[in-house]
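dude i think i finally got it to work??
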Amino acid sequence: MKKNTLSYDEIKSKAQNYCAYQERCHMEVENKLRTYSNSKEEIDNIIYELIKKNYLNETRFAQAFSRGKFKFKNWGKMKIKMELEKRKVSKKNIDIGMIEISEEDYNKKLDELFQKCIEKFNNYNKQLMKKKIFDYLNYRGWEYEKIFKKLNEL
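look at this
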């Protein structure tokens, strides 16, 4: 789409639809708005209106993002925090997002993933199996201490 071919109200309407579809962070919305307008002032005004009308709420985004990545992607807290930081979400909102993951659910998910890994890498010798389990969980952002504690149980 060519920039500056849409009116302010059309761009605002597109931004509202974009935010209504799923939770977004400010950075995602700003990047989307840049595809429609070169005016920093116009983009800032639209973002202000989206926040005012509750289309855009970074706390809500951090909570939904944390819940979703934990439940459906099996991400650990380290990876979730890193991704939220990459999206320029404030430390306060990241902490609020982390509250969405209960310690009980977190440990239960780690146990499930660990068992899944044991079954998946069962054909390997013990040392290689431990390395593969570590790599699998580390890649998904699980804390080293928790991974090593589980590996020492083998």
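The chain has nine helices and no strands.
im so relieved honestly
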